[in-house]
Amino acid sequence: MASVYYTTPIYYVNDKPHIGHAYTSLATDVAARWKRLEGHEVFFLTGTDEHGQKVEKAAQDAGMDPQAFTDRVSGSFRELAERMGFSNDDFIRTTEPRHRRACQALWEELLRRDEIYLGHYEGWYAVRDEAFYGPDELVERDGVKYAPSGAPVAWVKEPSYFFRLSRWQDWLLQFYEENPGFIAPASRRNEVISFVRSGLQDLSISRTSFRWGVPVPNDPAHVMYVWLDALTNYITAAGYPDTEAPRWRFWPADVHFVGKDIVRFHAIYWPAFLKAAGLEPPRRVFAHGWWTNEGQKISKSLGNVIDPLALIDEYGLDPVRYFLLREVPFGNDGDFARAALAGRINGELADTLGNLANRTLSLIQRNCEGRLPATSPGTDADAELLAGLAALPATVAAHLEAQEFHLALETVMAGARAANGYITVQQPWALKKTDPVRMAAVLRHLHSALRVFATVLQPFMPDTMAAMLDQLGVPGEARGLAALSAPLPEGTPLPPPSPLFRKIEASA
Ligand code: ME8
């Protein structure tokens, strides 16, 4: 089995977590849990991005020392990870000594290879994005210049170290060509390629006008540009600069999960930094889209920021996890609408999956003395249901390999709809008196279907699927994908079922 390395972005600690943070990490969590279910060894990393002008300013605004401030806000991201059930194996903070060491080692390696030189920067900078912009990228409104993201920019003029990014333009284009899966989805790939084709300038990678960052080795007037510092987290956690460290076997990362706004950093600067330092680039950068709230852009000034913890309190963790990955194709922008949330929870989780489980398990409880009926050869309808079930895990796996979370879930829902069609036609409740042998066979097939659905849905809804597998009598050691090929023994006792999902009010 392979080693798999998945990462989330590390989040700025200028403010508390919102739905966007929960979303990126949730997708990464599901991908990681799936790989573990397949039997792979997984390293799943998340954490917080704590340096830079934006965080320093947020600490000043809060009247706090930056370290105390980042300790506090980083704690709220840790809490989010716990409350959302994320299964991360590490949580990195860029203010940790291991990270400062990695950044300085990378810097020295780049310097040694003549990839860094000292110069003078003069140009536009957006603190909100922590990014430099060329004059032709800006728009002007009421005499103020803005970056394409809407962040205001300011003119910066200071001594600066530069990374020889221009050197890597041709290599990058060739790298994208040879690795067509490196940037996904395809629309993002095209965007990146055309940006690189338009010409890369050397990149300013140090600042002298503030102090909150990793000091540049042997030149303490400079702190490292926060994006060089931040991106390095992915190798810090793998043990860099110690390439003999046990965790180094996970590098290169398999997927960096990111939002569409930070593709440029991950797909251009990051592979160039790595290649320039003689390290391997990551295998894939997947950029998801952005959420709006009931059709409106989410922003603090509009007061419509969605707090993921409040959502969980209101609807329960697993329904929220399900909805976020079900509603919108991963990679597209999507709208968070309460009516859509209610539609998915009520129509799919409660009516389609929950109801099927409840009907089947209640009938087994009542009519089969709560014991699992035997498997038996069956009718054409049985064969069709079973063939669909046998193919389902591989289809889900293929979708997840391509980060198509919504299609993975649609595959399971299609299976659940087919099983509902089967129960409606077979009417096991009517067979008790007329043909109890057939009734038992039908209930056993439905049980097999439910076991497949619950097994493959574990990464999406860990707690509820654990409860469903308990009700199905599946022991803990038989919950992996490989165990699906071994049927549970006839006569396995099943506990009395209870509803797995509750319906919610559409207007809540
Ligand atoms: O960018 N919908 O951190 P960050 C979906 N520190 N995703 C959203 C969103 C929305 N409305 N708003 C924000 C950083 N996001 C850097 C990363 S990695 C080496 C450094 C997503 O806290 C956004 O797309 O500003 C991004 O992926 C993530 O939240 C983190 O944003």
TrEMBL record:
It is an enzyme of class 6 (ligase). It is found in: Cytoplasm. One of its GO terms (cellular component) is cytoplasm. This is Methionine--tRNA ligase. InterPro entries: Anticodon_Met, Met-tRNA_synth, Met-tRNA_synth_2, Methionyl/Leucyl_tRNA_Synth, MetRS_core, Rossmann-like_a/b/a_fold, tRNAsynth_Ia_anticodon-bd. A motif ('KMSKS' region) lies at residues 297-301. It comes from the Bacteria. Keywords: Aminoacyl-tRNA synthetase, ATP-binding, Cytoplasm, Ligase, Nucleotide-binding, Protein biosynthesis. It comes from Roseicella aquatilis. Belongs to the class-I aminoacyl-tRNA synthetase family. MetG type 2B subfamily. Pfam families: Anticodon_3 (PF19303), tRNA-synt_1g (PF09334). Residues 373-506 form the Methionyl-tRNA synthetase anticodon-binding domain. GO terms for biological process: methionyl-tRNA aminoacylation. Gene3D superfamilies: 2.170.220.10, HUPs (3.40.50.620), Isoleucyl-tRNA Synthetase, Domain 1 (1.10.730.10). Is required not only for elongation of protein synthesis but also for the initiation of all mRNA translation through initiator tRNA(fMet) aminoacylation. Its EC number is 6.1.1.10.
